[in-house]
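Help needed: design a sequence for this.
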């Protein structure tokens, strides 16, 4: 079931419950409320308090952006601020992010949100962008498009079918975990890009994680990536931030990156 942002709060809560594959009884037990009251909330026979909306949203693991939508639908003010990464309240967050990016040199690292929009990057990330078509680098830059578009990084990704599957699986989880139509539209777009054909599947016993194998200056560089998020965020922007750091998966890659680092 889907519900638009203009739907009553009960309809939206029911959609979230069904998205999480919970029955009314299961959610009622989890939230410590009666099934009768939950049913009345979902059908609009009872207007939930602000506290009840937040309580149910927490139990349903609703993203902060969508918790604000639920509150607005119930007639309450949003509970979670949303500021730009360059806004004064988020200055400590921005400083921490830039420190992580700088500290990761000479290895690539980028910052993006849940929709894949590129928010920041260190100088070493330019390694991936040198042959990307200019139209893909016009703001707002989207890391999924840059990675998988035929005029982006895709022609230089040696294991494109595996890396593509990895990125699409991650994006599919975001689609399932949010109610953001922009993420669903992005998934449909990038899933339609070519490059998913593979004559053979990788042996899962030979890798500990899906590597990114990238051709650069005649060499095949191998990376593994780690995605870090902020714990216990109370701001929508912060809750959607992810720092993706790429580490060399072999000594040859590490040496190339160290040799290319500015003195």
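Sure. Designed sequence:
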């Amino acid at each position: 079931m889907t519900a638009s942002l203009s739907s009553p709060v009960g309809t939206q809560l029911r959609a979230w419950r069904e998205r999480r594959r919970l029955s009314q009884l299961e959610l009622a037990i989890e939230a410590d409320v009666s099934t009768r009251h939950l049913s009345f909330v979902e059908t609009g026979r009872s207007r939930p308090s602000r506290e009840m909306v937040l309580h149910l949203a927490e139990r349903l693991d609703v993203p902060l952006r969508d918790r604000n939508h639920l509150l607005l639908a119930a007639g309450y003010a949003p509970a979670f601020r949303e500021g730009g990464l360059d806004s004064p309240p988020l200055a400590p967050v921005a400083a921490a992010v830039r420190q992580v990016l700088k500290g990761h040199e000479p290895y690539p690292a980028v910052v993006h949100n849940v929709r894949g929009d590129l928010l920041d990057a260190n100088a070493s990330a330019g390694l991936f962008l040198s042959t990307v078509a200019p139209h893909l680098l016009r703001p707002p830059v989207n890391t999924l498009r840059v990675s998988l578009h035929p005029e982006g990084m895709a022609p230089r990704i040696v294991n494109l079918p595996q890396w593509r599957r990895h990125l699409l699986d991650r994006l599919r989880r975001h689609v399932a975990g949010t109610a953001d139509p922009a993420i669903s539209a992005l998934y449909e777009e990038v899933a339609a890009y070519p490059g998913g054909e593979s004559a053979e599947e990788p042996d899962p016993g030979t890798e500990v994680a899906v590597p990114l194998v990238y051709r650069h200056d005649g060499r095949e560089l191998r990376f593994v990536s780690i995605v870090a998020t902020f714990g216990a965020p109370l701001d929508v922007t912060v809750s959607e931030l992810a720092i993706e750091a790429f580490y060399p998966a072999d000594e040859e890659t590490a040496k190339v990156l160290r040799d290319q680092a500015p003195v």
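The chain has two domains: 9-73, 88-260.
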